[in-house]
Every structure is written in structure tokens, then in C-alpha cells.
Amino acid sequence: MRKISSIILALLVGVILWYLFLKPQDYQVNFKAKAIPGTIFETVKAWNQGFDSMSPIRYTSPRHFEQTIFVNDSTHVYEWEIDPIHDSLSAVQVNIKDVHNSLNNRLAVPFADTDFEKGSRKLLLDFNDFLIDHIKNFTVSIEGEEETFSSFCACVQLKTTPEDKAKGMMANYNFLNAILIEKEIKLNGPPFVEVLDWDLENNSLSYNFCNPIIRSERLPDHPDIEYKRIFSKNAIKAVYHGNYITSDRAWYAIWDYAEKNSIPIEKQPLEVFYNNPNMGGNELEWTTEVFMPIKETNE
């Protein structure tokens, strides 16, 4: 009996020590969200901008990342784990730790509904409302495999955050059009974006903003304009309806589709825009065709 009691005591002490000092979180919140992991990740990034004091998201993957929130004199770390359930539903687990008051929280949590718990739940309820509002503003449909177009084009190369992609486009839309029209260069299709580098870890995006044109001997010589030919590629196609600022939600939808169907892709999407945002209108009627190239395999 003494040996059994010693074992039970040792296990109890071990559990207490683990709970107080080794357990990775002070509090955990679980909920389901009607969105894929990539959409949730991008929405957390947008929500994060609303805090008076914030730091960048620490990225591991769209399904696992850390957010640091400064609450009064405390620093709270939110570790997000997102698991897709099906095409439009994900299970979200958020592990929360108060960096400066962790031990006090762990001592209090089993015995009372603390301000730390209440504040954490309220923040995540606010986030869920933010997410619900966001997903009302766009739709994405996967169309399957399709060849991209081939065209000669005039391009301006840009580097921004993914969130500022549309701003970069708008800042150069009139510039590019004006130079081409001045030389009577004929356009040959809607404008598009060719992504060169999608750096999720550093929240950076390098891309060409282009107009398809008819090749001419009168092409204007300008240091910011590059002329090139886009060649067709086999790709997975999606159609996105919504504001161009958040068209990368379609990138994640294609990424998820490719993973589920074991299709190797190059994360360098091509977006074709069929509406001019300067004309206004219902954003849900703005159309973007999005293509994610399929990696070529040597047979």
C-alpha cells in the first residue's frame, strides 16, 4: 500500500508541476468557423490591425500561427490551431497565455471565472463576429483544371504586403493606361496580376501588374514598364466575386483543393480582373478569375 501511495503521490505532484509550469497555455478556447483555414488566417491578420498595440502575426502555416495582443499592462499570446472539417467549416483551437501573469492565472482558473478568461472569450467572440461579417463579402468557386491564356503584355513590377496588392494595382492603373494610350497601343484583354513571390512568413508579395496588348513598333520606352509574353500553363482555376483587396481568399481555396486532390502546384497565382473598381457598384458582382499553375512533372 505504501508503494502504491508513493506512486499516486508522485503522479499527483507530476500533474501539478506540469499544470503550473509546463502546460503550454493558461486557457483554451475552441469553436467552429464557417471558413477554410487560409480565410481564417487572413481574417486574424486584418482583425489584428484593429488593436491599438499589436505586433505582426508569427507565421508557421495558415493552420498554425501566433498572435500577440497587448491588454492593459499584460501581454497575451494567442496560439491558433485550425483544422479543416470540410470545404467550408474548420475547427479552431486557441491556446492563450498571459506572459507576465501565467502562474497566477493557472492557480485561479480552476476555482473562478477570472477576468482573464472572460476577456479572452469576449475577444474571440468579437473575432468570430468579425469573421462572419467578412465571409459575407465574397464568394469563391473552384472550376477545376484549365489552361491559362497566352499574351504579350506591358507590366509594372511591384512589391507590397498582400493586403496592399489592390492599392498597388490602383496606383498604377491610370499610369500604365495613360502611357499606352498616348502611343496608341491597343489593349488585348482585361488587366491581370502575375504573382512572382508569395512570402507568407514575411507577409510580402512581389507581382507584375499587367495589361495585355497588341505588339507594336511604337511601344513606349519607360524605366518602370517591362514588356513580356505570358505563356499558357495548366492550372487550377477559381472564380472569385468580391473586393480585389481580398481576392487572395481564392488562392487559399485553390491551395486546399490541390492538397485534397494531391495536385502539386506552384504558389504563384495569376488573377484576371473583369471590373474596374473606380466604377463602383456591388462588390459581390466584381469578377476575378484566379489560376494557380500546376507543377510540371517529368514523366
TrEMBL record:
Pfam families in the cross-refs: GyrI-like
What is the protein's name according to its record?
GyrI-like small molecule binding domain-containing protein
Q: Which parts of the sequence belong to the GyrI-like small molecule binding domain?
A: 157-295
